[in-house]
Amino acid sequence: MREAHPTERAVGIDHYVSEADGIGGVLRVEPEDFEVRELELDSLNIRPPDAPTGDFPNLVLRVTLRGWDTNDFAGRLSDELGVSRERVSWAGTKDKHAVTTQLFTVHGGDADDVPEIRNADIEVVGRLGRTLDFGDLAGNHFRIRVRDPDHPETVAAITDSLREFGGRDDMVGVPNFFGHQRFGSIRPITHKVGLHVVRGEWREAVLAYCGGPTEDEPEETQAGRAVVDEEADSDDPDWHRALDAIPGYLGYERGMLHRLAEDGAETDEDWRNALESVPSNLQRLFVNAAQSYVFNQILSERLDRGLPFDRPVEGDVVAFADRDAPDGIEIPDVSRLQSATGRRVDVMARHIERGRAFVTAPLVGTETELADGEQGDIEREVLDELNLEPADFDLPGNFRSSGTRRAILVRTDLTVEDESLVFDFGLPHGSYATAVMREYLKAGPLDL
């Protein structure tokens, strides 16, 4: 192993598992350098576009975006259709600096009303009886080009190391870390907001989101956030002044500050109302990011202790594989869990070797049951250090989470085109391409 980039360590990612030097290079010079295509679920059972709208009220669109943030596109689509932003749903948030293909649903949408939007190829697919939920996809397929590498000759050594880590000669394996997109690449604070939320610190959550300028942001943004901090420290804060100082393109920050300016900021409820001014999916993302930070820390500590990722140890919680996963994608079914104890440890190890099961760690929530053995010790120690426990996630509205478990290892049948350095691989939903590419580039998150 070798130590991770300092910015990664700030979100709980402490190590690279491959010791070879990174290839270096640059990603996303053009959006076409980073292509992402959703692997859609057959079980969605999408009906034809002319299916009755009473039974199937949700219009399904397959959209290829170039240079669009998913949330921003959803807002633009809802504006063009003249409907509420809350009526637009999707299964997974994609990278902005990329060419991405994914499904959207529009509740009550009509195929004849689908607009033309710049840098968006919109195809009417059919209708569904429900909206898409986050995670309603099997995975994603990636084609990623690395330009101007410094050490392309190290690709083979890194690949060999990742195959050894994953326990398979035909697939690379990496720790299933949450990538920086979950926390914010330029300003990784989403998990900090979420940790404040889980602790019931509503004022601190709003200020963590709206204030706290960072040097990688535009000067105008830094100046606006500095005014927020000034008012927060004032005995008589003027939230109208803070609102005026925040640039117009920071719509979520402005929404929170507008709520404070209009309704006051005297009680915890006032601050929570301000935080709830953002879309419901972003409210959930705050808590999800806190869970993800805890998960990353758990994985880093497991690496520190030298515990394996490709096989269980006594006390691990193992999930069996999803039988409906598409070929080439290994997906755990977290509804089918078993504790690895006694002779089950060896039995589970054989299942994991064949891609039929996975060692897991918790995304902590109200229903989380922690592991036993050394892995359980790790989970409890990380939570204790953060002053958290599962019951803390019993929160109001969109902030509540029952929790789940997640595989600690992700494996993929990766190929690399030697001359062009194009990396081609698929990952299950919820896993990040940066978890793979960081091992090869060994660069900071802003370069991934």
Quick take:
The chain is built from 13 helices and 16 strands. The protein is an alpha+beta fold and 448 residues long.
- Determine the structural class based on helices, strands and strand pairing: alpha+beta
Radius of gyration: 22 Å
Spans of 5+ residues with little confidence (pLDDT < 50)?
none
The main sheet comes to:
8 strands, mixed
Number of strands: 16
**Mass-distribution shape:** globular
Please provide the ordered H/E string of secondary-structure elements.
EHEEEHEEEEHEHHHHHHHEEHEHEEEEH
Count of individual helical segments: 13
Task: State the end-to-end CA separation.
Answer: 20 Å
Portion in helices: 25-40%
In terms of DSSP E residues, the strand content is: 15-25%
Describe this protein's structure:
This protein is an alpha+beta fold and 448 residues long. Helix content is 33%, strand content 20%. The protein contains 13 helices and 16 strands. The chain has helices spanning 6-9, 70-81, 155-166, 190-198, 202-210, 219-233, 239-245, 251-263, 268-275, 280-304, 344-353, 373-385, 433-441; strands at 2-3, 15-16, 34-39, 58-66, 88-90, 99-107, 120-128, 139-145, 172-175, 317-321, 332-339, 357-363, 404-407, 409-412, 415-417, 422-428. Strands 3, 4, 5, 6, 7, 8, 15 and 16 form an eight-stranded mixed beta sheet that branches. Strand 5 (88-90) and strand 6 form a beta hairpin.
